[in-house]
Structure to design on (191 residues):
């Protein structure tokens, strides 16, 4: 998964006004072997919340809806392993990890004040499960297939975009346990 920012990236972030950035190496909830990292990351975030005293939490991982914080929690439901597996592989994941993940997502969603879905599909999936959601007018990212461009893989393509064109994108392989399985998609974000 993603790396901690380089010294140059950190220096750039430090120059931004009103931005406090706390880089960590914690695994995300959808990653294999994330159990201990989630417990540690929740304690870490609860410490930041106690220190900074925010008015609202805007979260991009379902699990953080279960944080022990007495303030509004907004969770953005980008996607989840179950719906992704069902659409891509035609089946639900199974086994201990799948049971653990389902419990983590369920507890997180139960603890949120509001769930926002950036796509109609995700909105429908969440509403069919009984969650109250805000219907957006668009998402902030799109996944694309780069196989027609002749690059060996997504990382090479993204490096080309950054160095030659000045456009950043996220290699699709960063979203896969097996990076080779995601060597052709690239994610573009827009704000």
């Amino acid at each position: 998964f993603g790396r901690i920012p380089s010294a140059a990236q950190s220096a750039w972030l430090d120059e931004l006004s009103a931005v406090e950035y706390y880089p960590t190496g914690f695994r995300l909830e959808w990653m294999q072997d994330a159990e201990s990292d989630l417990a540690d990351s929740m304690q870490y975030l609860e410490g930041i919340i106690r220190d900074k005293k925010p008015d609202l939490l805007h979260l991009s991982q379902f699990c953080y809806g279960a944080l022990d914080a007495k303030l509004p929690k907004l969770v953005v439901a980008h996607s989840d392993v179950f719906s992704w597996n069902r659409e891509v592989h035609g089946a639900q994941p199974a086994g201990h990890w799948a049971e653990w993940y389902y419990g983590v997502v369920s507890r997180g969603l139960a603890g949120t004040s509001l769930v926002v879905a950036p796509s109609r599909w995700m909105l429908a999936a969440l509403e069919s499960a009984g969650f109250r959601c805000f219907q957006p007018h668009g998402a902030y990212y799109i996944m694309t297939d780069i196989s027609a461009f002749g690059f060996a893989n997504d990382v090479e393509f993204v490096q080309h975009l950054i160095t030659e064109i000045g456009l950043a994108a996220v290699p699709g392989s960063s979203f896969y346990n097996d990076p080779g399985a995601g060597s052709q998609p690239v994610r573009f974000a827009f704000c």
Q: What stands out?
A: Strands lie at 57-59, 73-76, 114-116, 133-134, 141-145, 170-171, 185-189. The chain has a mean pLDDT of 81. The first strand starts at residue 57 and ends at 59. Residues 27 and 184 are 23 Å apart (CA to CA).
